[in-house]
Design goal:
Blueprint: H1 10-14, E1 17-21, H2 28-41, E2 45-48, E3 68-73, H3 82-94, E4 99-103, H4 106-110, H5 114-127, E5 133-137, H6 145-157, E6 162-164, H7 177-187, E7 192-196, H8 202-210, E8 215-218, H9 221-230
Helix pairs in contact: 3-5, 5-6, 6-7
Pathway: Carbohydrate degradation; 2-deoxy-D-ribose 1-phosphate degradation; D-glyceraldehyde 3-phosphate and acetaldehyde from 2-deoxy-alpha-D-ribose 1-phosphate: step 2/2
EC number: 4.1.2.4
Enzyme class: lyase
C-alpha cells in the first residue's frame, strides 16, 4: 500500500469505523439502511440511538467479521443522574448492544470534580458487564489539555474500555489530532481511543489514526472508503 494510507488497506480501515447515525430526525428506515450499508462496507460497528434497539444485523460482513451494535448513553449533554445513565445502559445491553458510548458530565470536569466524574462512569460500568464495551465521551473540544488528561484518568479508574473525544453535537467542536494525541498518551494503550466528530475525509481519518485513535466514529464512512478505493 502507499504510505499515504499508512499501510492500511480498505478492509483494515473499515474495521476502525463505527458507522454512525445519531440525528434526532433519523427514522427506523434510515437505521435499517445504515445497517445494510455498514455490513456491505465491512465496518466494525454501527452506532445508533438506544430507542432503535434491538437491531437485526447480518451474522458476518464481507471479510467474515460480525457487525457489532453500539449505542449512546446520557447523550448528548451528559447532564443526567448517574442512576439514570446506568438504567439506560442496562436497557441497551438487554436490547443487544455490544458497546455503550456514555457522556460524562462535562460541567463536573470543568469544575475539577474528578471524583464525581469517576463515580458517574463507574455507575455505568456496573451496568455494562465485562465482555460488553464501555466508551466514555469526554467532549474534548470543551476541555483544556489538563482536563482531557484528568478525564481520561477518571475514566480508566472507573473501568472504561475506551475514551472518546466527542458527541459531535457540542458547539466547541469535535475530534482534533491534539486531543487524540493527549488521550492516547494518557491511557498508554491500556484503553482504546475513539475519535469522533467532524471526521469526513480520508485525510481526517488517517490523521486521527496516526495520532493514536483505535476507533473512528463517523457518518461519512462510505465516502471515506470510496476515497481510499479511488487511490487504486
Amino acid at each position: 500500500m502507499s504510505t499515504t494510507t499508512g499501510g492500511l488497506d480498505r478492509a483494515g480501515l473499515a474495521q476502525f469505523i463505527d458507522h454512525t447515525l445519531l440525528k434526532p430526525e433519523a427514522t427506523r428506515a434510515d437505521v435499517e439502511a445504515l445497517v445494510a450499508e455498514g455490513a456491505a462496507l465491512g465496518v466494525y460497528a454501527v452506532c445508533v440511538s438506544p430507542s432503535f434497539l434491538p437491531l437485526t444485523v447480518p451474522d458476518a460482513g464481507p471479510e467474515g467479521t460480525a457487525l457489532k451494535v453500539a449505542t449512546v448513553c446520557g447523550f448528548p449533554s451528559g447532564k443526567h443522574h448517574s442512576d439514570i445513565k446506568a438504567a439506560e445502559a442496562a436497557r441497551s445491553v438487554a436490547d443487544g448492544a455490544d458497546e455503550v458510548d456514555m457522556v460524562i458530565d462535562v460541567g463536573a470536569a470543568k469544575a475539577g470534580a474528578w471524583e464525581y466524574v469517576q463515580l458517574d462512569v463507574a455507575a455505568v460500568r456496573a451496568a455494562v458487564p465485562q465482555g460488553r464495551v464501555l466508551k466514555v465521551i469526554i467532549e474534548s473540544a470543551a476541555l483544556t489539555d489538563h482536563e482531557i488528561v484528568e478525564a481520561c484518568r477518571a475514566s480508566e479508574a472507573a473501568g472504561a474500555d475506551f475514551v472518546k473525544t466527542s458527541t459531535g453535537f457540542h458547539p466547541a467542536g469535535g475530534a482534533s489530532a491534539r486531543a487524540v494525541s493527549i488521550m492516547s498518551e494518557t491511557v498508554g494503550g491500556r484503553l482504546g481511543v475513539k475519535a469522533s466528530g467532524g471526521i469526513r475525509t480520508l485525510a481526517d481519518a488517517l490523521t486521527m489514526i496516526d495520532h493514536g485513535a483505535t476507533r473512528l466514529g463517523m457518518s461519512s464512512g462510505a465516502a471515506v472508503l470510496a476515497e481510499l478505493d479511488a487511490l487504486g
